[in-house]
């Protein structure tokens, strides 16, 4: 057996970041310390919708995620993505503080860790899947799975379609994150459109219900998507929302076709939440 074949799937955040350089870890530590100081002078938004976004809840992040859900519940109300979009499209004043939790990519730890904790907290979330990775197996698709991240040595497990169906049954929303986790801005229009439509069709065929929401991979405006073409293209493909990776609150008048989100790690402390949910 070669070393590649003995590689086991990543199930803890500790293993996920084990390959990070000492410099990257030092920077993350310094950033955390700076945010701790800065958060003291900030107070959370009085109103608006926040869209926290996660990628994973690894086995060693369960406690942190449960704590974060409690913290958010103490700060405002959870709402589904359908309700959040209806609120934005309605154009009325958004009185109160709301959280619409989202997840990107399609990892198996959503089904094993995130969803049970969301249900314990009595809430729902929207999960954006990369359809080309759903139903892959560690054995048959090892090279494809190792290629999901640029590092090439992180073996991630993805959901099966049965997992996705069970999540929908449990009240979760499944949206599209393209077929192949592409940089839309690097594609010609036909290919970008095919990624949006192909993933929507696959989700609707597998889950037997409309797929109304699209989340742009990587999510940086001007780098990963173009404001002038991709949200409009998503709307034409039948989506009711376009989610990005740009931080910030969504207030009255903001467009559901340009939703800002706050990237989170489930292990972060409350001071980090407070910092990122303040403006
Ligand atoms: Zn992604």
List keywords for this structure.
279 residues; alpha/beta; 11% strand
How would you sum up this structure in a few lines?
With 279 residues, the protein is α/β, with parallel strands linked by helices. 39% of the residues lie in helices and 11% in strands.
Describe the structure.
By secondary structure, this protein is α/β, with parallel strands linked by helices. It has one domain (18-276): Glycoside hydrolase/deacetylase (TIM Barrel, Alpha-Beta Barrel), CATH 3.20.20.370. The protein contains eleven helices and ten strands. The protein has helices at 3-6, 13-16, 22-39, 62-75, 81-90, 109-120, 142-146, 161-169, 189-207, 230-236, 270-276, and strands at residues 48-50, 52-54, 77-78, 97-99, 102-105, 126-129, 173-176, 213-215, 241-243, 262-263. The strands form three sheets. Strands 7-6-5-2-10 form a five-stranded parallel beta sheet. Strands 1-4-3 form a three-stranded parallel beta sheet, covered by helices on one side. A two-stranded parallel sheet has the order 8-9. Strand 3, helix 5 (81-90) and strand 4 (97-99) form a beta-alpha-beta unit. The chain is globular. The mean pLDDT is 93. The structure holds zinc ion. Zinc ion is lined by residues 104-105, 177, 181, 217.
CATH fourth-tier homologous superfamily: Glycoside hydrolase/deacetylase
Q: How are the strands ordered across the major sheet?
A: 7-6-5-2-10
Query: How far apart, in Å, are the first and last alpha carbons?
Result: 53 Å
Q: What compounds are bound to the protein?
A: zinc ion
Q: What's the total count of β strands? A: 10
What is the makeup of the main sheet? 5 strands, parallel
Low-confidence stretches are: none
CATH architecture: Alpha-Beta Barrel
Please report which band the strand proportion falls in: under 5%, 5-15%, 15-25%, 25-35%, 35-45% or over 45%.
5-15%
Total domains: 1
Number of helices: 11
Helix content: 25-40%
**Mean pLDDT over the full residue set:** 93
Q: Report the structural category.
A: alpha/beta
Shape: globular
CATH topology: TIM Barrel
